[in-house]
Amino acid sequence: MTTIAIDFETANERRDSACAVGLAWIADGRVVRRESRLIRPPELRFAPGNIRVHGILPADVRDQPGFAAVMAEFMPDLASGTILAHNASFDIGVLRASLHACGQPAPPLAYLCTVQVARRVFPDPAGCGLGKVAGRLGIRFSHHDAGDDAYACAEIALAAMRETETADIGGLAQAIGLPLTRVDGGSPPPPRPARGAIAERALRSFRPAVPVPLRFAVRGSTGNRYEVTLDERSGTPNLRCTCMAGRHGMRCRHVKALAVGDVTDLLSDNAAELARVLGLLAEVQ
């Protein structure tokens, strides 16, 4: 049976916003194959906090294939084998939610969480996060790179197999009293009905108050400093820039970047406020 470690990175708080996947296959007591792919999420809305974690920007995935196309070659192994993931509830949740977002049913899956494995085999008061366990075991990898994270996850499982003198993942699970978690397949949920005009107005009336104006300092291509401001005077939130294009009413590249969470050229220290603005913009899209 195939054993495959998986790790996803996401663009924002939604489980169906995968922007990268890493996979590592285990056979004969070692990692025999590694793959990593960038994924274009359904919407190019990147939360600044997520960017700070994995460093992936909207520009990196704009021309990449979507989830279904990227995962097509891997789904037979995932559906028929045993999946490993560190904090598996997150990665399995991303997999299932993203399949549903693509209109595809999620297959039955069997998985083992290497956080739980580490807590039983390599307990430590410092905790069992991926970086901490890998550091204690001498596993060298680049944290929050999806491919490297999947590799580290696989190596943790292999180290646990050696520690417990078990031959495979099934034997490891039995030895430490941690059975595989199995989730049934399921059809995608029905599409959400479109909002009507009345519902849209009601939603806006309950929108949380946001301090106005909100300003974001950005760096221009020649190093000039511009301000992008949240403008709600028309009743619909918009971002407006003080650059030449913005002053002529055009949607400049600075606005386009911030509108999808790209903070590469953000100079002001208010990325948290940008995350709130992105939520407002998403409501009216």
UniProtKB/TrEMBL annotation:
Keywords: Exonuclease, Hydrolase, Metal-binding, Nuclease, Zinc, Zinc-finger. The gene is dinG_3. GO terms for biological process: DNA metabolic process. One of its GO terms (molecular function) is 3'-5' exonuclease activity. PROSITE patterns: ZF_SWIM. SMART domains: EXOIII. It holds the Pfam family RNase_T. This is 3'-5' exonuclease DinG. Transmembrane segments: none annotated. GO terms for cellular component: cytosol.
